[in-house]
Amino acid sequence: MMGREHLHNLVHLAGEVRGADPPVRVRVTGLADPHPESLRLGLRLADELGLPTPQTFSGHRELLASGLCDAVIVSSPNMTHYEILMDIIGHPKPHHILVEKPLCTTVQDCQKVVEAAKQRPDIFVQVGLEYRYMPPVAKLIDIVKSGTLGQVRMVAIREHRFPFLVKVNNWNRFNCNSGGTLVEKCCHFFDLMRLFAAANPVRVMASGAIDVNHRDEVYDGKVPDIIDNAYVIVEFDNGSRGMLDLCMFAEGSRNEQEISVVGDNGKGEAFVPESIVRVGKRAGGRDGVLTIMAEDERIKYQGLHHGSSYLEHLNFLSAIRLQGVSGPSVNLTDGLLSVAIGVAGQLSIEKGCFVTIEEVLAG
């Protein structure tokens, strides 16, 4: 599904850069997938979008061996990311990489990818934590960075949404494949907490369970073990705190994401999909709160994530063009720490206590 979403974005991106100086070509040359139906749907979409028919491959190694690509987008199931990334990074021909979140399902695999990438200065890896680019979120990030709110003390993120979608062979129903809900879904929000707090995580406390969704599902004799709701508290090394409120049986919500950032001078909020930002100073009180409609005129395709995937691709293209001048906007350290917070949260739920990031990174 996300592979096809990327196809949509690439088509619109190709139209965006035709007039670029120097000229830029964005062309989809190949699709690789061991699942025949996914390949079929990808080819059908490419035809519907008017793309030249891309070559197809039954696996990523065949795609790499073809020599057709300069850059690779990895949008495969989470548990396959590590092997695919290591093969791309280790391939003699350099390929720039945009990998969907999470970077990998375990901290140890993320660390191995980080170390391998250090040996390849001729490539870069960007991690698909695209929630940063959603217009209301990006606007709130700018407000925080401007100092309007003062020193950030608290970050609260609520995601109330629908259950996990059905994926190929139901891989996302089990922690061993996805890394767990707090890794698979919530790495986005832990990444945002780090951005807003401008700090790194120290320890995590979480409470969660599988209370409503998937309880009557059975796959090969196994019942899904992915949690569908949780509260997660994250403490940062500058004294600030973050809190995640996740519920995946809350379709009756006006907004899917509600973000609140409070500093010692003021408060900012972002609402998705309403695309509203509110900001106020303590001195101005309730009457001084401003409401802003957040938009980004660069977005040519809204897609599944309110235009953020399109902006992610713009950033990826820019990093390719400026290689050696600037790195990817979301780097491997960002990917690693977003996974580490999620893993700490999953462990905290299991143990019923705080879990330090230090112990998670130490393995």
From TrEMBL:
Origin superkingdom: Eukaryota
Domain Gfo/Idh/MocA-like oxidoreductase C-terminal: 144-354
Gene Ontology molecular function terms on file: nucleotide binding
Pfam families the record matches: GFO_IDH_MocA, GFO_IDH_MocA_C
InterPro entries reported in the protein's UniProt record: Gfo-Idh-MocA_inositol_DH (IPR050424), Gfo/Idh/MocA-like_OxRdtase_C (IPR004104), Gfo/Idh/MocA-like_OxRdtase_N (IPR000683)
Occurrences of domain Gfo/Idh/MocA-like oxidoreductase N-terminal (ranges): 2-128
Protein name per the record: Oxidoreductase family protein
